[in-house]
Design brief:
heterodimer, A: 461 residues, mainly alpha, MetI-like fold, 3 domains, two-stranded antiparallel ribbon, flat, B: 444 residues, three-stranded antiparallel beta sheet, 64% helix, 5% strand, extended
């Protein structure tokens, strides 16, 4: 909260700088704008940028660096006996205890004087750091303001400087997307490397047994844990196949109908309907799958003498397919509409019926686009989380029977990472290895979809 | 005049064609027309299936959830016994009032209503279970509000417990065998007696809208999650809107066409297709573990969702900018505006409706997103309403997920009600987007 006020103060100073710079430029130009190189507002913006940008940059850097320094100082200040033979994880736990104590939460080690002292030191350092940051940020902001204001002369090219700065800001913001991808890739890879240091790569990728647990004691039963991800891949594949069996025909046929047959009245109803279907949050589909569809399949199976699990892959897959229908249909709709009318007219002219034209001319022409739409839909089904978390099972079951419960990659990521975790156990890290696999597979599918369109698209104009 | 418009001339007399045409060609044509009709029917059926599923989904949620908007109350005569609340007599003391045993008052009231049901411990426990476990708090607040009721007997409306409430709403059927339902025959008997005395009534369930989460279904509300959602979306909007618009402006208006900008473009398109849970992993690894931001906080949730909605905003903003005709830019340039002035004064304001539409759609997506927030700990059980961006909080869809996981039967209707509220917000946001598009969109 205090930090927010500080940021607000820096921004406010920037605003003051704008007003001051604008006023200053008018004064030195004797209130005649044509004496100035740029419009007065650019002088204002110039001062505002000089005041605000360094201050905000300092704040950002400080907020990132300060915790590390404070933690280092606190840990360094502890009695050597406490920290001498601690592993990295134990140091983390100790620090966690100190921070908990310092922020007034319940800590398990609140009775040790060394820890209490460290907590006080932590609070003091943080407080001191904040004071220092406030002073530094305000000083740099105000001095920037004063310097920039003093630099204003009638011939100063304020507009050019401001535009250059804004251009730089635009470039930086467009790099955020790249940074995000970089962040995803790096964080997944780093944690996965730590995981593969504990579990061999091939055991993970080709192992047939998944029971992620780490033992508290070495002699515990099942202490090793098994991280063979094949059952997860199989479960994901099973549910994805079921979803595509639902989504591909329904989505494709409704796209064809909407693009080729539907009169405006049907379109006016069907298009918003599909958009609504697309806009429903996945957690709602998950609830629907778990409470309506799964019991229905179970009851139906019972009535014809089949044993259907209450967390069957069928229920999750069918509901996921429903979720993907609008995705398939809207992408295919675009592709079908892009097929030029002259192709259809040529086919009609040869005597083909409407459906023959669609099947023999329009769909082959649109095929690359349709294939890429289906690939994107598959990638979406693989990455979908909430439906399977709520409606699919938890136990890794290597089966192709859609009536049994299977688990998926995303379900395991969620179950491994929800709740408190220790960050060096193979159990937690395996979630990142699964995430990396998921990322690579979906990225691969997207790239293939892109390549399919680029390589096989027919150009008609 | 063309051939097609001429009157049919009939088959030419004699020859091979005369014999073959009616039999084979007509049958073939019939088959082709039948195939045509079938194909058309498949298309219509697909759309019908999609519509039917949508109706089924909405129908099942509304039919499960509409009853959560009211709550059954039971009227009990409660004696605010002076020996319990003010044992020393004289001035009523705040501390004794606060620490008094209100549960006993509730139990006495219930025992008074059914004197014959107090023989065994099991009976008594069942009797006490008629009303909400939170009833003592209600009584305490009554006394704190008005100490003068000490020593009197009042008719107090207390909430029925979740099971009895579910029964009263007809969601637990009487004709089930007793072992299959959560409400015993004895409890139903008490309920019938109370109902015949007009001591049962249904009221609008306002607590659903003003309480945080609770383990007791009758006390659980969505207010905390709603505030959490608002805080999270505020962060998302503040981060993703400026960055998204600036990126779109740069890529569309200023960026040179080179390998770097190609890379950024491909990157953004790929980011749009990354599964949402991967963004959760990013948030966990970078924001929580690397930067040390607090767990379960709307700040972190908002940042993660901002990164997730960024591609949506960039892509729609770019298409809105692209739709502004070049003549506008050229006219402004011709009048001496600098490139930045062209964008800031003309192109961006003209593209703003489209940009805002895209932003609202992105925000609607973010509002419904659950999976990445599970990764950063927003799935915790949080009773308090969050006060700031770093308080532990949860959001509406996660609240739905938590309730959907709860075993109590009464949470089913509350989950459905929360879904209805969430869908209501989404519909509202999309309507605003549609209206914005209709009202301000310009065709050039």
């Amino acid at each position: 909260m205090q930090t927010l006020i500080l940021i607000g103060a820096v921004l406010g100073l920037g605003l003051i700088g704008y007003v001051m710079g604008r006023a200053r430029s008018l004064i030195i130009a004797n209130n005649t704008v044509k004496n100035l190189h740029s419009l007065p507002s650019y002088y204002g913006a110039y001062v505002a940028l000089w005041a605000g940008l360094p201050g905000l940059a300092l704040l950002a850097a400080w907020l990132i660096i300060q915790p590390q320094i404070v933690e280092g100082l606190v840990m360094g200040g502890l009695p050597a006996a406490l920290t001498a033979d601690l592993s990295g994880a134990q140091r983390g736990l100790l620090l966690h205890d100190i921070v908990n104590l310092a922020t007034g939460n319940i800590s398990t080690r609140g009775n040790e004087p060394a820890i209490v002292a460290a907590a006080e030191r932590y609070n003091d350092l943080r407080h001191f750091g904040f004071m220092l940051m406030t002073v530094a940020a305000l000083a740099i902001t105000i001095s920037g303001l004063i310097v920039a204001r003093a630099k204003i002369t009638p011939t100063m090219r304020a507009r050019n400087s401001v535009e250059k700065a804004i251009n730089a800001i635009l470039i930086v913001s467009s790099l955020i997307a790249v940074l995000t991808t970089l962040g995803i890739v790096l964080s997944l890879i780093f944690e996965s490397i730590r995981f593969f240091a504990q579990v061999p790569f091939q055991d993970f990728l080709f192992g047939m047994d998944w029971s992620p647990q780490t033992a508290l004691r070495a002699d515990q039963v099942g202490s090793s844990g098994a991280f063979g991800a094949v059952p997860l891949f199989a479960g994901t594949l099973l549910i994805t196949v079921i979803a595509m069996l639902v989504a591909a025909p329904i989505g494709l046929m409704s796209a064809i109908y909407m693009a080729e047959y539907a009169d405006p009245r049907v379109r006016a109803v069907a298009k918003p309907m599909l958009e609504v279907l697309a806009g429903i949050p996945t957690v709602v589909y998950g609830f629907f799958a778990a409470l309506t569809v799964a019991p229905f399949f179970r009851g139906f199976g019972e009535s014809i003498g089949l044993d259907v699990s209450s967390e069957s892959a069928l229920a999750a897959g069918v509901v996921m397919g429903i979720m993907i229908i609008p995705f398939v249909s809207s992408l295919s709709d675009d592709v079908i509409n892009a097929v030029p009318q002259s192709l259809r007219d040529g086919s009609y002219g040869l005597g083909a019926t409407h459906s023959e034209t669609i099947r023999n001319v329009v769909i082959p022409a649109a095929l690359p686009g349709i294939v890429s739409a289906l690939l994107l839909a598959v990638s979406r089904a693989i990455g979908e989380t909430m439906i399977v978390v709520m409606a699919a099972g938890l136990s890794a079951n290597l089966t192709i029977n859609p009536l049994e419960a299977v688990t998926t990659v995303t379900v395991q990521i969620v179950t491994l990472l929800v709740g408190d975790q220790e960050f060096d156990s193979a159990k937690t890290l395996s979630a990142f290895a699964l995430g990396l696999t998921l990322f690579v597979i979906t990225l691969g599918l997207n790239v293939i979809a892109l390549v399919v369109v680029r390589k096989y698209r027919e150009k008609y104009d | 005049m063309t051939d097609a418009a001429m009157p049919p001339t009939g088959p030419p007399p004699g020859g091979v064609a005369d014999i073959r045409r009616p039999t084979i060609a007509h049958a073939h044509l019939r088959r082709r027309y039948a195939a045509e009709r079938r194909f058309k029917l498949y298309g219509l059926a697909s759309i019908a299936v999609a519509g039917l599923v949508l109706l089924l989904l909405i129908g099942s949620i509304v039919s499960k959830g509409y009853s959560a908007f009211w709550q059954y109350y039971v009227q009990i005569d409660i004696t605010f016994a002076a020996e319990e609340l003010n044992p020393n007599g004289g001035q009523v003391e705040d501390t004794t009032v606060r620490s008094a045993d209100y549960l006993k008052l509730v139990r006495d009231g219930l025992k008074h209503a059914f004197p014959d049901a107090t023989k065994s411990r099991r009976d008594r426990r069942a009797l006490y279970g008629l009303v909400s476990a939170n009833s003592d708090v209600v009584l305490r607040n009554m006394v704190l509000d008005d100490p003068s009721i000490i020593g009197t007997t009042r008719n107090v409306w207390l909430k029925l417990s979740d099971d009895m409430d579910t029964f009263a709403k007809g969601n637990i059927k009487r004709n089930l065998p007793e072992s299959d339902r959560r409400v015993s025959d004895q409890e139903i008997g008490w309920y019938d007696i109370l109902a015949s005395q007009d001591r049962i009534t249904a009221r609008f369930n306002i607590d659903l809208f003003r309480n945080g989460d609770s383990r007791e279904p009758e006390e659980a509300g969505i207010y905390g999650a709603l505030i959490g959602s608002i805080l999270t979306l505020t962060v998302t909007l503040l981060v993703s809107f400026p960055i998204g618009v600036m990126t779109a402006v740069y890529l569309e208006e200023f960026a040179p066409k080179n390998r770097w900008t190609d890379l950024i473009e491909v990157n953004i398109n790929n980011l749009a297709a990354v599964p949402s849970i991967v963004f959760g992993l990013l948030g966990l690894a970078v924001f929580l573990n690397f930067f040390g931001l607090p767990r379960s906080a709307p700040l972190v949730g908002g940042l993660v969702l901002a990164l997730m909605t960024l591609p949506t905003i960039i892509i729609t903003a770019r298409s809105a900018l692209k739709a502004v005709p070049p003549s506008i830019r050229e006219a402004a340039l011709g009048l001496g505006a600098s490139p930045l002035q062209v964008v800031a004064h003309h192109v961006l304001p003209l593209a703003m409706p489209g940009v805002l539409t895209g932003t609202i759609i992105g925000m609607a997506q973010a509002l419904g997103e659950t999976a990445p927030l599970l990764m950063i700990g927003m799935v915790a059980f949080i009773v308090d309403v969050p006060q700031g961006f770093t308080d532990p909080a949860t959001v509406l869809p996660v609240q739905i997920y938590i309730w959907a996981d709860s075993p109590e039967r009464a949470f089913v209707e509350r989950t459905s009600a929360a879904i209805m509220i969430l869908l209501g917000f989404l519909v509202l946001m999309n309507l605003v987007a549609v209206v914005l598009r209709r009202k301000f969109e310009r065709r050039w």
